[in-house]
Design goal:
single chain; alpha+beta; 3 helices; 14 strands
Length: 268
C-alpha cells in the first residue's frame, strides 16, 4: 500500500501527504495553490511521476513536486468550467480534459500549449468523468445525464514517437528550471522590499517614535502652562475691573463735595 498520497480541496489547493510520517506535523508534505475553485482531478504522469496534473476552475495545470509556488505548464482559461482530466497512458505529453459544456479537449504539449490539439463535442450535458484505455486507443466520457460515450483516437494521439519520451523529459526539465529561476527572483525582490521597508522605518524612528511616557509628560506640562497663563489673564482682568468702580466712586465724592461748598460761598 503506498504511503504517499495527494488530495485536491474545494479551495483550489493540492495537498501532498504521507501516511507513515513520524510526527503529525509531517503528514502534510507540501501544499500547491493554483486554482480559484475546487480541484476535480489529480493524476501523476505515468512516465514521469515527479510531475502531476490538476484540473479545476477553467484551467489544467502540470506541477513539479519541487516547486510549490507555481505550476510549470498550464492551459489558457477555457470558455466553460473544467470538470475532469487524465493523462494518456501511452503518450507522455498528451492529456485529456472534460468541460461543463460537454466538450472533450485533447492537449499535446509538444504540439501546442495555447489551445487544444483536438476538441470534440461529446454531448450536451456536462462531462463528469474522463478515462483512457490502458492501450491509449479509446477514451470514455461520462456525462451528467448518465450517458457514456466511447471515443476512438487516431494513431497520432495514441502511438508515441520514437524519441517522444526524451523530448517530453527535456521539456519538463526546461520548464522546471525556468520556474525555479522566476521563483528565486520573486523571493529576492520580496526580500529586498522587506529590507527597504525596515531601513526606512529605522531612519524615521527617532522623529516619529517618541516614548509614550515622555510624550504624555510634555503634553501635561503644556496643558498646565496654558492653564496658568489663562488664570493670570483672568486675574489681571478681574483686578482692573475692581479698580475701575473705586476710581469712579472717588470722583463722585469729589463732585459732591464741590457742590456742597458752592451754596456757602453764595450765602456770604
Amino acid at each position: 500500500m503506498p504511503t504517499k498520497f495527494m488530495v485536491g480541496t474545494e479551495q483550489g489547493h493540492v495537498i501532498a501527504g504521507n501516511r507513515k510520517a513520524k510526527n503529525p506535523g509531517d503528514r502534510i508534505v507540501a501544499t500547491y495553490s493554483g486554482h480559484v475553485g475546487p480541484v476535480y482531478a489529480l493524476e501523476r504522469n505515468p512516465f514521469f511521476t515527479k510531475f502531476f496534473l490538476s484540473v479545476g476552475d477553467w484551467s489544467a495545470r502540470v506541477w513539479c513536486e519541487d516547486i510549490r509556488e507555481s505550476s510549470v505548464i498550464w492551459t489558457p482559461p477555457a470558455k466553460s468550467y473544467l470538470t475532469d482530466g487524465c493523462w494518456s497512458p501511452t503518450r507522455p505529453g498528451v492529456f485529456f480534459t472534460g468541460r461543463s459544456d460537454g466538450v472533450l479537449d485533447v492537449w499535446d504539449i509538444l504540439f501546442h500549449r495555447t489551445e487544444p490539439t483536438l476538441s470534440v463535442q461529446v454531448c450536451d450535458a456536462p462531462i463528469v468523468a474522463v478515462r483512457a484505455q490502458e492501450q491509449g486507443r479509446y477514451v470514455a466520457c461520462s456525462a451528467e445525464d448518465g450517458s457514456v460515450t466511447l471515443l476512438e483516437l487516431g494513431e497520432a494521439l495514441s502511438r508515441p514517437a520514437a524519441s517522444e519520451k526524451a523530448v517530453v523529459s527535456s521539456t519538463f526539465d526546461r520548464e522546471t528550471a525556468r520556474e525555479k529561476i522566476l521563483v528565486s527572483r520573486m523571493r529576492e525582490v520580496a526580500l529586498n522590499a522587506k529590507q527597504e521597508r525596515a531601513r526606512s522605518a529605522k531612519q524615521s524612528e527617532p522623529e516619529e517614535n517618541i516614548p509614550e511616557t515622555e510624550a504624555m509628560k510634555e503634553a501635561e506640562e503644556a496643558f498646565f502652562a496654558g492653564l496658568d497663563d489663562t488664570r493670570a489673564v483672568r486675574k489681571q482682568a478681574a483686578d482692573e475691573t475692581d479698580e475701575a468702580p473705586k476710581e469712579a466712586a472717588v470722583e463722585g465724592d469729589a463732585e459732591v463735595a464741590g457742590d456742597d461748598a458752592a451754596p456757602e460761598g453764595a450765602a456770604e
